Amino acid sequence: xxxxxxxxxxxxxxxRGSNINFLAxxxxxxxxxxxxxxxxxSYYSDVPDPMIAAQRVAFGTSGHRGSAFKKSFNEWHxxxxxxxxxxxxxxxxxxxxxxxGIDTHALSQPARATALEVLASNGVEVMLSENDEYTPTxxxxxxxxxxxxxxxxxxxxxxVITPSHNPPHDGGFKYNPPNGGPAELTITDWIGMTANTFxxxxxxxxxxxxxxxxxxxxxxxxxxxxxxxxxxLANVIDMDAIRGSNIKLGVDPLGGAGxxxxxxxxxxxxxxxxxxxxxxxxxxxxMTVDWDGQIRMDPSSPYAMExxxxxxxxxxxxxxxxxxxxxxxxxxxxxxxxxxxxxxxxAIFYLFGxxxxxxxxxxxxxxxxxxxxxxxxxxxxxxxxxxxPVGFKWFVDGLLDGSLGFGGEESAGASFxxxxxxxxxTDKDGIVPALLAAEITARMGRDPGEIYRDLTHELxxxxxxxxxxxxxxxQKKILEKLSPSQIKQTDLAGEKIKxxxxxxxxxxAPIGGLKVITENGWFAARPSGTEDIYKIYVxxxxxxxxxxxxxDEAQKIVNDxxxxxx
Length: 566
Description:
By secondary structure, the protein is of the alpha/beta class. The protein has helices at residues 36-45, 75-92, 108-121, 137-148, 185-200, 211-216, 225-232, 239-245, 262-269, 306-309, 340-351, 373-381, 396-401, 431-444, 448-459, 473-480, 544-562; strands at residues 59-60, 63-67, 98-102, 126-129, 157-161, 170-176, 220-223, 249-252, 273-275, 317-321, 328-332, 336-337, 363-367, 385-388, 404-409, 413-416, 463-470, 491-492, 495-496, 499-503, 510-517, 521-527, 533-540.
């Protein structure tokens, strides 16, 4: 049976069901905080068993993730993955510098040390941050693209050590090739397969030197990520407009990798910006608990964002980013925390009307599970819509060559072109969408919440939700390989089904599930790549009761396909 977990990642719907944890929106109790010494000890002492699927290297949409407590993110994993990346670089002739960055999760520092030992032993030129500063995901992408601009050989790539907004006990490891974005499936499949081969061989073939020697190696360099990125922001955001308006801004870095970026941004561009907190604590005890009782640094969650939402009247606009600063959360006076789909719609509406140097052919990029409001905005703008499967990697080529002006996901990840139409980053950037909200407010005289409300009067007012249900491995395989002919229903929630998609309209890539569309609503069902669940995304332009009807019928359609009730 489908379980409504009230993830509320888009927040268009009121709280539904009864599965919200009693601590949601409150500060965690002491016993909930991760034991950091125990976690680090597990990282170094526990050895994964490659015969157990959950302990193997597995690249999802954003790299390999896991916890040392579950033997899914240990030193052995990082040794194996890093050696595999070194072999991949050699195979592909990638011999420029590798930009290496970390976030503030407890496992990121030891994983960086492990990775550096392997990289140095393999003779890879590594760029570490000055003063061991934390480095946001978009800053690594920006560094790769900046270095590679105009080059044909000696290209750079990068590694970002982060599990994004995941709980404090998790770790993550992601590879970005020379295009600066998340590695595509063919690359991650090869790296994952090779890394698991090393695990099976008990790390035979992995090269490694002591950390002390790696830090002093001639191939290890320091790079000023912070100032290089911040100095370039004026080429993607109208900082003069923000400064001239003197709007009062608040920002909560949520203890993440951009924690020390915001004050220098304010100082350089003379912005009226207050940083709520610069606390870095690997237990993230300062966070309010998410919907399910987990500590999760998700800037799109009203529960995780309770602190900043409570301060909304102190500022004209406030915003936050997740732990690696590749996701954004926008809080307005008029509407509180904006659901990601709302803000993506506004950002697109504004950007394509205020970037005259962008190509008239530049398209709007969205994933198949993002709001249909984006489709309507693109039509209003007269812009082509480029709809792709879940995963920011699908936007990389378009952002790189300028055929996409904007790429965004319903999970609050986005990036867009520079003022002149050239590429900014090819990975998600939480910092520039946050600053764009300030530009919008400064230039339009209204905050994004007010602008979205006006848009709904013209284009309709959608309600949106995302649900989860348990699924076996076999059931997930069935969902992943669906064909439209397997769907026997012709109607959905009182409307004729217009189209059933199993491939994304933009690039014809498999969406790993299906999407059913009617005149005023749709749902998409797809299996999770990392958990034994499937997800159903639902939207209606006819209100909550219609949304509920779509949810009920979507569950029946999926159950019919699977041949049994889940």
